[in-house]
Amino acid sequence: MTAAATAKDEALAALRRGDTAAALAAATRAIAADADYAEGWAARGTARLIAGEALAAESDLAHALALKPILAEVHLNHAIALISLGRLDDAERSIVRARTLAPALPVDATFRQVLDLRRADFDRTHSREAGFRLVLALGAVDLLRDAETVADQCLTAFPRDAELWMVKADLALRQRRFPDAVAAARQAAAVQPDDPEPAVNVATVLFDSGDSAAATEVAARATEKFPHSELPWTKLADIVRDDSAKGWTAVKAAALTPDASAAALSRGLWSAAERVEWDLVDDLRARLARRLDEDSANPLRLCLHDMPMDVLRHNAERFSATRWPERRAIAPPPTAKAKLRIGYLSPDFRTHPIGFIMLDLLRHHDRNKVEVYAYAVGPASDSPERRAIVAAVDKFTILSELSDFDAAQKVRDDGIDILIDLAGHTRFTRLGILSFRPAPLQLHYLGFPGTVGARFNDYIVGDPWTIPLGSETNFTEAVMRLPRTYLVNSHRPDVVPGWDRARYGLTTRDIVLCAFHHPMKITRRMFDAWARIMVAVPDTVLWLLADQAAAKTNLLNEAAARGIAAQRIHFAPRADLPLHLARYAIADLMLDTTPYNGHATNADALWMGCPVLTLPGVTFASRVCAGLLDVIGLRDLIATDPDDYVRRAVALAGDRAALAALRAGLADVRQSILFDNATFAREFEAGLFAAWERRLAGLAPQTFDVAPVAAR
After folding, report:
1. What is the reported pTM?
2. Tens digit of pLDDT for each residue in 128-159?
3. Domains recognised in the chain with CATH numbers
4. How far is CA 370 from CA 205, 340, 361, 362, 571, in A?
5. Would 377 disulfide with which of 203, 214, 430, 564, CB 3.0-4.6 Å?
6. What own/partner pairs with CB < 8 Å and gap ≥ 24 does 452-455 have?
């Protein structure tokens, strides 16, 4: 134990026996021994608080929290000091922070002090400001009826206060009194007709009340009245969904408002990429890059675009920090045990690529060494994939309806040693569960191709291609680097038999270049390369995956602009996996995209013996396919730049014998190490055990390489 820690313990012991002077002296010695020791400052601040020295106590406690902001009890003591100084707003924030960090911490008495002081202030002054703050304070502790009573008193005196009417609407909505909520929201809009926020609030309340049609009408009227404000356009897009024509109009308009947020810009960028509107993509990407200096956007949406790795990391850190602040860990200390209990958390244990490709890893875990728990969040499912996952694990639990804290408590109560998040920043993520650190060791794996940017994740799982040596500084997590590919590849189902080229309008004379990626992954630079290949090899056709009419039209227009006839572009609809896999059997070459590769998509192609040409970039998302190809010895299909990509594709497409030889070489790929899931599971477990040993030893997470395991 350090001298500072020893002195701090002496200070706390003195406080317990009521000797404030001795506590102050010991805490001061702790600070002298280590000026950066937060607990020493906290001990002295607590002693000064007990001694009635509120000003000095507040200073010491604030200093402790600046050094270590996750100390829940210090936040509470800081609140008490702030109350003594009359700084009620700051005290409220400290109480909320304490309760967020430690939900079981007894904060009610302290909050009651704030309420009593606010009520006294309101009773004395009857001012709008005092009443408004009392309403918010009562609402924060769910005293909703009391809050409404005060709100009504304020509105009697200030009937044209739109902000008070909106708070009243929210209070009614929280009590599920929908007509009252709608009436209050409409009143706010009536008294402040020149502000878009109250109008948008009406749409929000209507939508939350279950009246989507009325919500759409109100939001649409707001867009007409406030065409240059992001708020109504964003709300309209949220209500009608951005995959509809009306939704796209709203998303686009929100992104094009003069002061569009990073969220609106990135959402517009995502939708523009889906529709293959590349001029708009270029404009929004440039605007978003400037906006990210002070704002943040969903990190998944940035993966589609060439952005420096340090920008991606800083954005992920800002985005995660504002949504999932790290709270006090609720996990017990790690203990040595014969079997580790591993928990996988995912919204995609259903008909979803993640649920499917994870299946063999779940099955192949060594039950002599580990127990496997699966925690489902996100949409309900009774699919065959869900049932297979349930059968593959030792225990399957649905957490979808639980709060983040209650779900985290469930994970803790299950005694999970290592919790592995499979979602990151993808849809239906529940990173808030991990923010409570319900397991002693926490990892991010598979679902999101990059750093999550949250300090509550200890490790990210990668491989030599996705996170090469020297790139670790671009990740907030330490790296657990697997020896081959990080991407587990469960065996695919049998394909639908009997399908041939004629069924798809293709001929045996065609050299079929397929690119079965979501259209949003197709960039202008990528399509330029494909067009150059097709111009150089006239027998080629391009087979794309597209359902959306706008994307098809725009892709055909882009092809025509590059001299490619429409007859040479073919579209495949979305299909169930067996039917989708059958299409690779009649294609000649799969063309990968960058900066967002096909991941499971390219593994599907290789499984079916279809070679894949890739162009890796610098980001995780752009380097996955290169790792797959390297594992099976196909480095000749890894291009070094766009010109090299075109040269290699032209050489292959112009040589049918070479293509046939390449396909023949993939005939036994299903028996290769790429699809050896038993060996993958052993290597994955070796990494988990190595990380666990560091955790047991009390060592901080550290990047390490997992040694390859010999295939059985």
Report:
1. 0.83
2. 998 998 998 888 777 889 899 999 999 999 99
3. 3-106 (1.25.40.10), 340-448 (3.40.50.11380), 501-675 (3.40.50.2000)
4. 48, 5, 12, 11, 45
5. 430
6. 452/299, 452/316, 452/320, 452/421, 452/424, 452/425, 452/476, 452/477, 453/299, 453/313, 453/315, 453/316, 453/317, 453/318, 453/319, 453/320, 453/321, 454/317, 454/320, 454/321, 454/324, 454/326, 455/326
